[in-house]
């Protein structure tokens, strides 16, 4: 962000990482603490649009779209390795290219396996963690994830493909936003309609199918991520929609096994919690950050 930028605006930028154009949102004063926002499936940095507005006066916020998501480049699976290992490498290069350090990492859903890979590899980059419905413990695996695991264990490719296709459909995307919410009237249809629109762009469905099938590679890494937490004890704010059928509330409480000093807040909400409780979470973030500026 250059000196002429108005810090009250969100800027929409692209940067080249290797041969990929990576889109990102950026707001706030570069001299203030950095919060890097890592989005989940099936969304993009769009999921943080309101949170960025609410926090930009106090922090330097950056939210990238992963390759194949949002407005970032979407190479075919034949021309790019869509694995969580590789997505983490791209975001790590993104961090380095923007010269980011002392990062507070906000992780939701897919942001968890991407962010934890980076934190474990480069713990010196991480100041604090904000974790929102992003799992790192077996206790947090919900019925939807178990169902997919059971299908993969059967080897029934037709059933697996059907379940994945539903997750990428409008009904499946909307369900991730609506299920478990206490008040669905406050969840903007812009959220799931935007995700659905982007999912329907050329090549996106093929990318998501590959990543969903790669998701099982995250579970064996849980002990590694837990060891990182135990060893480095990063200050952590955990906000969680306890009714999430992907990662239910037990996943939030499980972090206390490794981080006994973590701040845990369970909300009567679902997977995309900031759609329903964004202002409450913004308040919690401010209080948390004030206590943990390092």
Structure description:
The chain is an alpha/beta fold and 294 residues long. It has one domain: Alpha/Beta hydrolase fold, catalytic domain (Rossmann fold). The chain contains eleven helices and eight strands. It has helices at residues 49-55, 84-97, 111-121, 143-154, 157-168, 170-178, 189-199, 204-214, 222-232, 250-254, 274-291; strands spanning 10-17, 20-27, 34-38, 60-64, 103-108, 126-132, 236-241, 263-267. Strand 3 (34-38), helix 1 (49-55) and strand 4 form a beta-alpha-beta unit. It is globular. The two termini are 22 Å apart. 43% of the residues are buried.
CATH architecture annotation: 3-Layer(aba) Sandwich
Count of alpha and pi helical runs: 11
What low-confidence regions span 5 or more consecutive residues with pLDDT below 50? Answer: none
Structural class: alpha/beta
H/E element string?
EEEHEHEHEHHHHHHEHEH
Count of spatially separate domains: 1
Q: Going by CATH, what is the homologous superfamily?
A: Alpha/Beta hydrolase fold, catalytic domain
Give a short account of the largest sheet. 8 strands, mixed
Classify the fold: give the CATH topology. Answer: Rossmann fold
How much β-strand is present in the residues?
15-25%
The strand line-up of the biggest sheet is 1-2-4-3-5-6-7-8
Mean of the pLDDT scores?
A: 94
